[in-house]
Amino acid sequence: MASLRSLAYGLYEQRLLRSLPADKIPQHIGMMCDGNRRWARALGERVEGGYTAGAGKIEEFLGWCDQLHVKVVTLWLLSTDNFNRPPEQIEPLMKVIEDLVDQLAAVGKWRLHPVGALDLLPAPSAERLKAATERTSDVDGITVNIAVAYGGRRELADAFRSLLHEHAQQGTTLEELADVIDVEHIADHLYTRGQPDPDLVIRTSGEQRLSGFMLWQSAHSEFYFCEAMWPDFRRTDFLRAIRAYAARERRYGA
């Protein structure tokens, strides 16, 4: 029975793939990998088991993105709000993230780029993220933004702080800066500067909110909310999200 179900899903996925217009594939996908803790609790497992299962899905997901020639993927793995939890809850998650980043770097197919307030992380964790970035800097593959200690409000605060420091060093007065500052100036100081904004943002676990994810960059993004918890997210679910995106008429705020 299981083999028949697997065959049916395989055929369905091939049909979904054939239905996707090549010119309507998102070039940047934001992925909110949500539901790991609830997945673990539903199975009666320790929370750490949910984190590990969620991390195990990442490489598979990036393979699906490779197949569709997606250019940039942003994976939200740990928010700034998560740091309000007790340290004993954060430490196991950080260990899983560190191991995941090392594993992705070892694959050698993707260029890793941490985005977030790395100063909030323990120094060894921040160093491992930076080391993985350096090891993959020359890789010609998907740019994978690892959003750790990430929050949209913190990103905007950091962007404005960076912008002010830059102009202070140039001797620009606040009055002069106020006269010239525009959207491009701010975008140039985001964690994702130089990258295209996400075309599609996917959130798993049935939650239908952004929770501060890429507040600036997602102004014109399309959104897709999936009921599956992240560890249960299937290629079928992914292709359905892409199909829904391809069927939409993007208006870019018009």
Overview of the structural elements:
By secondary structure, the chain is α/β, with parallel strands linked by helices. The chain has one domain: Decaprenyl diphosphate synthase-like (Undecaprenyl pyrophosphate synthetase). 48% of the residues lie in helices and 13% in strands. The protein is built from nine helices and six strands. It has helices at 2-19, 36-42, 47-67, 87-107, 123-135, 152-169, 174-180, 183-187, 235-247; strands at 28-32, 72-79, 111-115, 143-150, 200-203, 222-225. A six-stranded parallel beta sheet has the order 3-4-2-1-5-6, with helices on both faces. Strand 3, helix 5 and strand 4 (143-150) form a beta-alpha-beta unit. It is globular, with a radius of gyration of 19 Å.
Helix and strand layout, with pairings?
Blueprint: H1 2-19, E1 28-32, H2 36-42, H3 47-67, E2 72-79, H4 87-107, E3 111-115, H5 123-135, E4 143-150, H6 152-169, H7 174-180, H8 183-187, E5 200-203, E6 222-225, H9 235-247
Parallel strand pairs: 1-2, 1-5, 2-4, 3-4, 5-6
Helix pairs in contact: 1-9, 2-3, 3-4, 4-5
Task: Tell me which CATH architecture applies here.
Answer: 3-Layer(aba) Sandwich
Strand residues, percent: 5-15%
Radius of gyration: 19 Å
Backbone structural class:
alpha/beta
Number of strands: 6
Please state how the strands of the largest beta sheet are arranged side by side. Answer: 3-4-2-1-5-6
The separation of the N and C termini measures 49 Å
Compute the number of structural domains: 1
